[in-house]
Amino acid sequence: MMNRQPVVIIGGGWAGLSAATRLVENGCPVTLFERSNSPGGRASSFYENELGEWLDNGPHIVIGAYTAARRLLQVWGSAAGISYAEGNAIPWLYPNGKIIRLKLGGSGGKFSALTSLLSFGGMPVSDRLKTIRALDALVRWADVDLTGETTVADFLARYDIKPGGCGGLWDALTTAVMNGPPYLVGLHPIIKAIKEGLLVGGDSGRIGIPTRPFKSLYIDPAVEYLTGQGVEMRLDSSIDAIQTSRQGALSGVISGDSVFRAKQVISAVPPLELLRLLPEPVKGQPFFSRFTEFEYAPIVAVHLSFDAPVLPVRFGYIPDSFTQWIFARGIRESEGWSQLSAAISYAPRKNETSSTIIGAQVLDDVRRVLPSARRVEVKYLKVVRTVRATVLLKPGSESLRPPPETPVNGLYLAGDWCGTGLPATIESAARSGDAAARAAMKGDAPEE
Q1: Which of 126, 128, 270, 417 might form a disulfide with 391, Cβ 3.0–4.6 angstroms?
Q2: pLDDT confidence of 448, banded at 50, 70, 90?
Q3: pTM
């Protein structure tokens, strides 16, 4: 193991940190370059002086089926920062404080998971039966277009499930895990997510909510673990170019005026950033040029603080609303939480709606479903927009997603946008980083 070549990792998001962790666990020397002053990528934190606290650029959840992400939190020593207090139930928040819980999965197995949907009072019995038939078909790959050209809405229409129907269940699923509405996103990625989480039951369906900002949940613990294992973390150090030899093999990376020779490089940055780093002859190859075809989806987070508790549950979904998810922040007080973070997937772009209008709409939605929020003062409201939060996995996008290996010998790819079969989530990023590390170690293995 000690004779392995050093591996350079570009990017310190979940994918890069996952790759670095797997490599050091196998005795590989690693140098990680991150252009910002802290790892985290698109799941990062910033310090808000007005509040005196760290805020995340967008709230996330961790379900029990996130095996790779949860393993990393265990390795980094921060798994206790995830609360599973809600079990496998998602609170549906309705006007005037009404709450109905949707149970994901059951005690275990597909039958138990499907049966649990029958108790959901948020949709008519007829819609529950339609949903069960549709979910059962997905598990059996029945009525699934194997060409990958079907949207979620196309599939649902076969079961007479109309847009916005079933109490908003399908809208909630697709926007949460695919960052896009059912009429726009492809069916294939969500099938694996449903089969691994919603329909497995038991621990796989548990909903985990971070109780700390990302900085203390995983960023600082990951840095402490990796540097303690000998990883060289070069923060505030951007990579300007990836170098290849005349034969097309990897030769190193350029950062500022410095050239770092390397035979093994894992790129853990988004597709457009990767293309910017590649030499012209390489980026023109069909393997890489297809990455320009990806489209992107924005996410907006709105952080609010009230002068008294308003949210009685740790998180919840608001059906048929501009605001989709609400999460609690900080410490629970006697009657709930006074600090909230709202999330809007596939949010309006900056040229479509202003941050002021978004903030006002979220506040209206919160007050509509949480009556106590109408009687207290808003102390703080901040809108955070991530323009290219994830790739938008429309029908046909699966053919764009690459494996970890590339035509450039020694160059490997990682990121939530890569070919994991999952939607572009934290779990997809974690699995892709692990796969890229394994591919790099396999490529560096001595010949027999």
Answers
A1: 417
A2: very low
A3: 0.93
